[in-house]
Specification:
CATH class: Mainly Alpha
CATH superfamily: Hypothetical protein af1432
Number of strands: 0
Distance between the termini: 39 Å
Number of domains: 1
Structural class: mainly alpha
Shape: globular
Number of helices: 13
Length: 260
Amino acid sequence: MGIDFIPALNISGLNPNIKVSSRRFFPHFGQQLENDRFEGNLPERFTNPAVLNKLINSNPKITKILHENGIPLNINTKDLNNILNNHCKDVQNIVRGISENLPFSLKTKVDKKALNDAAYLHDIGKVLIPPQILNKNGKLNDYETKIMHKHSELGFEILKNTNLDKKTLDLIRNHHQNAKKSGYPFVSNDFRADLDLQILTMADKYSALTEKRPYKEAYSPQQALTIIYADVKDGKLHPFVFKALAGYVNTIGCETRQRA
């Protein structure tokens, strides 16, 4: 089986150092310069509470979405930090694992920077989801599900006026979409779930399934892979991406058994 089957499943386009003579007035100036250079390229730069507050309040579209859906404007950094430090970092690791286990012909087409940034920031919109919905100990009702589904669009709106590239922003907005366009938020007919998006989507779902959440226990790796494979059979996700995920999971399992 060659690479020709890829379009059928909508993976298309796999196509100075400043020296100051006296440091008595600016004792930390040089250090701050280095920190700024380093931090200026990290996705974490957008998750500082002061930065988040500025980004949210400077975009009227966010207020409109919240008002239309009856969501109070409450910036919930406590829960967001928990999500970032656990789920999002886990998704970053899984994204790297999937990418490294792809066939070489696909591996070279992965946008590593965009994927890494989107993996960390994909749930930033949950900073505006009410805690009682985010942490509900039970199944969400229809209204609560509708609110929860707004997090990807809100994440996009929070970050769209930053210096993040379009690729990363699209990954954040569409990380709950799929090749059949049956996810959320709404996409146009010309939408294509490309390779990077399918890697992110699969990594996000695997991480969520294998985590303990207020409403469920953690699934085993095998249970999670079985659930995700149903999406592959349904044409929502590409089999090569799934095979790469399974390869990564198997590698992690082998390492764990060896350490034990």
